[in-house]
Amino acid sequence: MLKIIVRAGLGILLLSGSTNQIAQAQGKKKQKSNTPFRWVNQPSKAYADVPIQHKTFRSQSMGMDVGYCIYLPPSYDKSERTGKRYPVVYYLHGGRPGSELKSVGLSSFIEKAIRSNRIPPVIYVFINGGPMSHYDYPQIENGQGESVFIEELIPHVDSTYRTIASRKGRGIEGFSQGGRGTTRIMFRHPELFCSAAPGGGGFATEKKISENEGHESDRIVFAEGYNAYDIARGYARSEKQKQYPLRILVHVGTKGSNYENNLAYMQFLKQLGIEYEKLIVKDVPHSARLIYERQGDVLMKFHARNFSDASE
User: Fold this and answer.
1) How many domains does the chain fold into?
2) Domain assignment of residue 202, yes or no
3) N or C: which end of the chain has fewer CB within 10 A?
């Protein structure tokens, strides 16, 4: 097993995944769901052993409830007397349309890491990205996925739970569609996050949107400049890069469908002068779960280190 890590934009980690785990993941066929999009999705019995709580908040902009799932560390209730506050990582799911139940299985890895003292206690929030998964898409009624997250969910979480309600205690992470969303949002709102870990994002699609006047396809058209390439360019040119420097960890598996375009996007960031670290997991397919099984500690410790450094 090869382990190599270097920081400051040159960091790389190569890990061989379990042959059985990878074969199982590759053997699973993606099943398309005919379930219509909902802003609230109730967990079934299948989620009984997942250490999360399903909650809702009222979206004032849409006049309806929105679901989210939250992981609270074991010490959260015990520390109520002391008023201890915790950093928060917002996790952006993959796939389209959105659901707050996607990706919550990762909370089992987080729970084990905290209970074994490999990382400090932290809150994770698993969001519903809306009908276009983390994009604002006004062509669809109540299609403001990004705005609901930024303008309503984050303030709700900060007012409801004992969070470190500032940039120094807030991180963002996501995989696939969530990796695309994480990248756009971290560069649009660097004043909100000190730590960002986009994973397996479809950057070839983001480049296509940039180069084709917002067209992801014939049917799906986004606002001009609303993509991971143009937004990164804007961040690199603006004073925000100096005011709110982001700590970024791009992660991807070498067998993932987006591996090559993630390498291309990292080269693009380098050309812009945007610093980042990278985590490359050898022989792992397009799977956030397998990346967490093999090297989730690197992702979790990355956020923990950034929270710690920001508080100094």
Assistant:
1) 1
2) yes
3) C
Q: For residue 26, what pLDDT is reported?
A: 36
- Reading phi first (left if > 0) and then psi (alpha if -120 to 50, else beta), residue 106 is in alpha
Q: Is 117 exposed, middle or buried (0-12, 13-18, 19+ CB in 10 A)?
A: exposed
What CATH number is given to the structural domain containing 303?
3.40.50.1820
Give pLDDT tens digits for 282-303: 999 999 999 999 999 999 999 9
Q: What is the 3-state secondary structure (H, E, C) of 103-139?
A: CHHHHHHHHHHHHCCCCCCCEEEECCCCCCCCCECCC
> Do residues 222 and 180 lie in contact, with contact meaning Cβ atoms separated by under 8 Å?
no
What tens digit of pLDDT does each residue of 18-76 get?
A: 334 333 333 344 445 567 899 999 999 999 999 999 999 999 999 999 999 999 999 99
Q: Name the residue range of residue 297's domain.
A: 88-119+129-151+166-312
Mean pLDDT lowest for which of 22-26, 94-98, 128-132, 205-209?
A: 22-26
How many C-alpha atoms does 247 have within 13 Å on its Cβ side? Answer: 21
Give the per-residue pLDDT at 34.
Answer: 63
* Token code pair at residue 3: 């382990």
Q: How is residue 244 written in tokens?
A: 């709110």
pTM: 0.90
Residue 187 in any domain: the answer is: yes
Q: Rounded to whole angstroms, what are the CA distances from 290 to 22, 256, 280?
A: 8, 11, 12
Please report whether residue 16 resides in a domain: no
